[in-house]
Structures
1.
Amino acid sequence: MVNSMSKLIHRTAEKANVPPEVITRGMTVAILAVYALRIGYPILCSSLTIVGNKAREAQEKISSTSPIRSLERNQLLTDEDVEQPLKTFEKKSRKDSKSLTIQELTDGLTKQKLHLSPAFNKQFLLQLVKLIRIMIPKVHSVEMGLLGLHTLSLVTRSFLSIYVARLEGHVVKNIVRKDIMKFALQLSKWLLVAIPATFINSLIRFLESQLALAFRTRLVRHAYDLYFKNQTYYRVSNLDGRLENADHCLTDDITTFSQSVAHLYSHITKPFLDVVIINFTLLKMARSMGSFSVAGNVLGGAMVSLTGHILRKLSPKFGKLVAEEEKRKGYLRFIHSRLIANSEEIAFYGGHEVELTMLQRSYRSLARQMNLIFNKRLYYVMLEQFLMKYCWSAVGMIIISLPVLTGKQQTENGDGDKDDGVSTRTQYMTTAKNILIAGADAVERLMSSYKEVTELAGYTSRVSKMFTVFEDVSQGKYQRTLATLNTRESKKSFKVQGLTFINGMPEIKGTVIEREDGILKLEHVPIITPNCDVVVPDLSFTMTKGMHLLITGPNGCGKSSLFRILRGLWPTYAGRLVRPPTGQMFYIPQRPYMSLGTLRDQVIYPDTVKDMKKKGLTDKDLASILAIVNLQSIITREGGWDAIGDWKDILSGGEKQRMGVARLFYHRPQFALLDECTSAVSIDVESKMYQAIKDFDISLLTITHRPSLWQFHTHLLQFDGEGSWHLEPLDTNTRLSLREEKERLEAQLTGVPQMEGRLQELCTLLGEDSVVLRRPSADGTEDSLQEKTPVANTEPLSD
Ligand SMILES: Nc1ncnc2c1ncn2[C@@H]1O[C@H](COP(=O)(O)OP(=O)(O)OP(=O)(O)O)[C@@H](O)[C@H]1O
């Protein structure tokens, strides 16, 4: 076979009839052209992609006159997904969203679009650079060290591949020459080199994982800093509407993104190095065979460019697809965590079918998206394999055979071959084949990494959107998506003096001043919900020491919202708020939060044991605190202060509320914001606790419906549910007697409809009229009861 190949080479050389020098020059020019093409082409493609995307964005801006169309096009949402937030919005806000102007809707949707079109474009590169700055903050960092080490191992691996391929060539050559000694020597070398080669392979994987973990750690640290800055964890879901599942972004998205970056680095760097080194090696080898494989190189270069172009053209938009997949994964996880958090309530209601339907629906939506990706991959991978495996193999065979077919005949080499150069050519063919396989593999990996880059664009878009939202929210910049936003034009809203709305969101213009002197003062502060409903347009009151405020009003009138503003959870959109530092205002909700940890941790929450010791408090003090709320028995019942448990489930509703109040005695703030926090506690214990709070010199701001608590307050702030309010000193006795009278009248009036009915019957039976039924109505006119009731005969009976 080797002989026939040699003959073929002779014949081809004769037929070509070209002086070797001319071919050599031509080949040099062609090689340079191929390398220029290989390096220049990707750069050219990137620039064209950027220009193309810009043009497309501009085109979309012009043509996006239909907001719903642009929502569908840009968000990759299904009909269900589009309708769902709108339904939620309608239910939640109870307002008419049709009052939005088309311009407002379009503006909002265009903004949404910017976040939801991940692809390989300028936006992706900018986002990636920003994230890389977080992942590698400085040159002298652990990440940079890992990156350097990783690169070094990749380079070493590439050189080792060439060395191993060469060794294999020598091994085969010595087999052909039947030189046993040299064969044994080369084989031993081959085995010896396997030790560093396998170690380097393992090291590459190790460093890739280390790099991914280091990137993840940096990102997580940065994300946590932002997430816990200015209560962003609360605001991001309550005041801003851009990020749906922050938990999923903080866990899965960051992990996938860092793994993808680290993987892509080695996935691109290694094959790139391989391609460069292999090409030079092949060239050198071809030269040693007396010929440049230039025609082969030109062919190879053209093949790479052509297949690259085809794959890029036909590649599905993996970036968008995976971003949508991640979104749906996040939603499924959200439904699961809601089920776990509310399992008892759902079990009591027997609501498992509704929950199951929701879970199934969200799983189906995820599975649909995954299926879509799999389907798209099916054809893409098929095309990829066809082009890269078969077309390239054919080209590869041509490339390695050309130097042999067209090169100078070597009958003797340095090793003293006397076999018409057959063993040398066999060595060349073996080495070249091995190197070419490695090269083809490298180019295939380079080409397939385009798909990974587009997928990375999806993860980059999600992570970078999360950081943008966190940064905005921590600085008090909020955005609601228009699907969940109510505008000031809604019918229940009021005009608020001096408030400007930008994109339907009021500008935050209020002043908040923190003072230590125990004064709480609101001057013309409006209560505005995150949906921009103005619940109370202008609220002003001052609380001084010794004042205890009772807050009443119908449901949804803004009582709890007032607490949110006082505690700084909601912005002060206008006016002036003077308040003590946040640590001096302690809020207790109706369902107090139980933390993870020991029994001690429950009492001192949110302090730590270290804080407790700093304050000079001991477990004995905690026990006396629990005694005030009649909860001392749980210390022994639960096994001491260090007992750990799921306190949310261990303690009963009333016990949890008492624990909530116990925290107040531990922290001793200036103000206690009590939001129905003792509704499950018996009246006697409740009274004892309130008296103790007053004895601790803590000012009360209480939301309650229990008259038994009136006596502990000096003032009453009453909302009417229509935006108005009044503040007055609370005279408990008068109020109690008024209430008694009201209840008495209510009890008396309960029987009136029945009595009226009976009277009506009697009138009908007797054929007589009744003066009682003709009573005046509220507007002063005569009641229409008489008219409503058919009276048999109102005429006096004639004799
Ligand atoms: N996170 C939120 N996002 C949007 N709107 C909200 C939010 N929280 C409360 N609201 C709205 O603010 C309004 C006032 O709510 P708030 O909780 O202050 O009522 P409340 O007076 O305490 O009622 P209740 O006596 O029923 O507790 C309601 O219309 C409510 O729908």
Note: Residues 751-799 form one domain.
2.
Amino acid sequence: MKLDFDLTLYLVTDSGMVPAGSTLSQIVDEAIQGGVTIVQLREKHADTSDFLAQAKLVQQVTKRHKVPLLINDRIDIALAIDADGVHIGQDDMPLHEARRLLGDDKIIGVSVQTREHAEQAVLGGADYLGIGACFDTQTKELKQGSQGPAGIRDVWEHAVEVSGPRPVRAVTIGGVNSYNAVHVLICTRTTRGNLPLDGLAVVSAIVAAESPRNAAAILRRQIAFAFESAWIARTPAARDSIRSAIGDAFEAARQNTPLVQHITNPVVINDCANACLALGGSPMMATDASEQADLAPVVSSLVINIGTLNAWQVDGMRAAMKQANLRNTPVILDPVAAGATKYRSQIVSEFLKEFGVHVIKGNAGEIAALVGSDEMHVRGVDAVGCGFKDPAGIVRALSLKERCVVVMTGPVDYISDGSSTFAVKNGHKLQGTITGSGCMTGTAVGTYVYAVAHTDPLVGAITGMVAINLAGEHAAQRPDVKGPGTFRAAFIDEMYNLTKEQLLAEMRIEQLH
Ligand SMILES: Cc1ncc(COP(=O)(O)OP(=O)(O)O)c(N)n1
Ligand SMILES: Cc1nc(C(=O)O)sc1CCOP(=O)(O)O
């Protein structure tokens, strides 16, 4: 009978990374104690006798812990030590030959890079797939480059589709670590059925870690978080109590004073800091990469605004998002003028590949650029065009593509988590006459999203939109407001003065999906 196996945290070894004074067997031992559930011995440069000797040593450890041991590429070594199975790549022995030699009781995993590879492996009877490469890696030279979580999802979805009622099992590999583990597992869930990968495969994140045991334990914690996460695809029934949830999120900010860390542009930095304070948050505007790790433990949410992008800001943004992702702190991305220049488009696409972002907030032109629609465009920082035929559908499509909540601002704001989509019809046209009102919207979302992010970032995003738009309406009605200058000050005042009762009585939201 085939051994039951658990792919949750899959350690692939590389003895070239073992630090002086340590042995591979010790590392495997520690890693299993930290939570590794399956081990693959991968010796790319060892001759047969060294490989065999290493395999025997590592097998003593895996047997002691009752964790399966697979052998990379070498069926002969697997047979010699009676390993639990093998892992083979596209250039190795064909699956049917490996199966013939090993028999049905052994585990055979196959590396796949494309839908076609996945289909062949599934139909050929692979026990699991190793889909790669997720990210760039220092561990081996990649023939085809990395696909990012969205590319891995595409292959995984196809594998699930062709494997019928009992989906094949799969992990992804390549550049995976504790910082990006949650992002990878959330972003690779299938669109239909919301099916996650079975786990993650890593080499350097454990073998080269200072403490393989701690590294494995942190990875297990992150994987468990991702499996339990409700960040996407909630059921529409959960929306019944949306109004009271919005009221609760609004109040939570006033009670808990979330620390909203911004890396934003100098044009709006002061307005955003004041808006955050007025709504009940505590603004932090630290931009340097070197201080993000120290700040991260106390940050409630992170707002990344690419308004005046430059290389050192990008470094700070990367460092901050990496830390936020490790702590599962909500990240709000404002892709200002994405689509206006190649540089911005490229940076945003790299960010969305590498980091988990929980809310994207943009105007119609920015959202069009991210979703790949030519119905709207960006001119400078403004959206131009006649509008989307189906704005709610566009927002939902981007949400499903990026696996996050998407807010599209405009005369009507559209907000979707891919499952439910809402229109927020509050707001005043004077908001469009001052610089920074869009950026303050990102701040508002960041202020409210923290409290509910782990259960429902959609609620936090809608709360931010309703609160800021009501403040705009209230400010515009004031007799002392004569135009953009007086509106700007009154806008902050009305954020400060807004009450939960007003919010609940005056919000104009409509559920569209
Ligand atoms: C779990 C897992 N997935 C993929 C691979 C890569 O295997 P392969 O394509 O055979 O490349 P090498 O490992 O031989 O460099 C893997 N080893 N494990
Ligand atoms: C062994 C291997 N296979 C890959 C694939 O894409 O199939 S990537 C890879 C190396 C993964 O190492 P690390 O976790 O250190 O990035």
Note: The two ends are 48 Å apart (CA to CA).
3.
Amino acid sequence: MTPILIFDLDGTLIDSAPDLHAAASRMLEAEGEAPLPLATIRSFIGNGIPVLVDRIIAATALSPVDRNRLVAGFLADYQAHATDLTVPYPDVAATLTTLKQAGHALAVCTNKPAAPAHEILTDLGLASFFDDLIGGDSLPSRKPDPEGLLILRDRLGSGPVVYVGDSEVDAQTAQNAGVPFALFTEGYRKSPVGEIPHTVRFSKFNDLPQQVESLLAIAGQA
Ligand SMILES: O=C(O)COP(=O)(O)O
Ligand SMILES: [Mg+2]
């Protein structure tokens, strides 16, 4: 059976925090609020854009009454500027090429809405590597619910699965799905590496292909 490698998006394949920060700054300026620092916005990423906006509201004088309008406005503005400043992490394309050539199916499971996720992958020249994608608005549930990973496994032939991600949410998702987890240590995690459950970890994408075979052996036994 074809092994299936599923990747998180923000903070794993791409450094999207600068564009999310820029969209947050434009929203705050339009509402008469001061911008929040990049590090603050980065710490708000991982549970989807509606939750990101909720966290911005909680950190400022914005009113929760305006939440739906702010989420809709943020989404529209972000989608129009999603790759102004966003780049893949170093060696992502080369690593995906290696993994694809090894015969693995590749997919994305992100809490970012599917439309901007697709657009970003296309704009950055990464879309053709992936066989499938589930976004934060693709299902009634989102990570850490394991449904996205389990549906991708079913769609891609039920082979052994490895999840690759950067955050506490991703670790929990892998655990909930019962699949091994490769932690990218240079993304948007909030806790020390030792406090995030992982099967292997890596700080450079070049190191991932070597680790994948051992992970797949574990996934095959699960
Ligand atoms: O919070 C988001 O919008 C998406 O984050 P993820 O790609 O790391 O799941
Ligand atoms: Mg992430």
Note: The chain has a mean pLDDT of 95.
4.
Amino acid sequence: MLGRVNHIALAVPDLAAAVETYRTTLGATVTEPQALPEHGVTVVFVTLPNTKVELLEPLGPQSSIAAFLAKNPAGGMHHICYEVEDIIAARDHLLLSGARVLGDGNPRIGAHGKPVLFLHPKDFWGTLIELEQV
Ligand SMILES: CC[C@@H](C(=O)O)C(=O)SCCNC(=O)CCNC(=O)[C@H](O)C(C)(C)COP(=O)(O)OP(=O)(O)OC[C@H]1O[C@@H](n2cnc3c(N)ncnc32)[C@H](O)[C@@H]1OP(=O)(O)O
Ligand SMILES: [Co+2]
């Protein structure tokens, strides 16, 4: 069911500083910041030869990134995003397997304009999983 790793996401308390670290210290190519109020984040992608790193800063009072940073003030790895060909088939398989699909269970449009779903970290060895249909 799983395809490539689309991105690994890091929650950061200061997006501008994190972008500077990736651009200058690590010599990586980064995108312009993109505000996604419907997801409660501002996002920058670091583009790598084999995948992407997604830098996430909280946007708005209900942001799940704000909750994560309250527990991890220095930031840290927030989720891993795997590609799937058919997100509805993947969701239905996961629900039948007993996994918790977050939200109302329906895919939302993510940062790449594609449908995404999130799976509860307690069902996947402490790691929040995002699925993106490609
Ligand atoms: C940019 C758009 C999009 C894209 O296209 O790429 C994105 O990536 S948006 C990214 C932000 N959106 C989301 O994360 C949506 C899904 N997340 C959630 O629904 C919630 O964050 C959550 C995973 C259900 C956590 O909810 P919260 O209320 O913040 O925390 P809890 O205290 O209820 O957490 C329960 C339990 O899980 C642990 N936890 C929380 N977050 C993570 C995490 N990122 N990784 C691993 N574990 C996590 C938390 O510590 C709790 O554990 P215990 O303390 O042991 O109970
Ligand atoms: Co993501």
Note: The longest strand covers residues 76-84.
